[in-house]
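Good day; I would like, with your permission, to put a structural problem before you. What I wish to show you is a protein chain and, alongside it, a tokenised description of its three-dimensional fold. Thank you for your consideration; the sequence and its tokens are set out here:
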Amino acid sequence: MMKTQSHRTLKRTARFAASTLLALSAFGTSVATTSAGQHGSGSIWTTGAVCDAPAAQNANLYVAGNPVYVRGENFAASTTFDWTITGLPGGASGDPGDVVTAGSGSTDSSGIFCVLAYTVATDDWGAYKVNVTQGRTSKTDNYTVDGPADAVTPPSDTTPPSDTTPPSDTTPPSDTTPPSDTTPPSDTTPPSD
């Protein structure tokens, strides 16, 4: 009888452990799915197309006067987000490390958004970074402004040469006739020591 009671207790313990593990794994999957949905996997891109028009992703080359729209999808639905556009540092842009514009918006009920973020200024050139943040989710995209040729920084030493006056005597020599005797010498014996 002891053997049978032990056997039953062991079976009950195994069933309890299995059902507990099953419940925990289902709960863990539910939490992970909810957490990912709340924080969003999100993706962003820049485009020149207005918000109500379809747009190809990654229109990344702009010139002065172009609008820069930022679009996003797969963010948390009906939730606010913040965005910035910053010039890349180290001589990569005309606004190194400067935030040229910033704002906030809200996603729609599907987690999608589109904002007219910026109109490229005439003195912009180089690479810029768009950063969109919603809660703990932060996404970035870069674009380039093809600036005017005079936006390139000139060399630091532009001092002209000190003496640029031509020589005072530039008249050609008056006697340019070749020598009359061009015959080689007749005795080419080397001298003896």
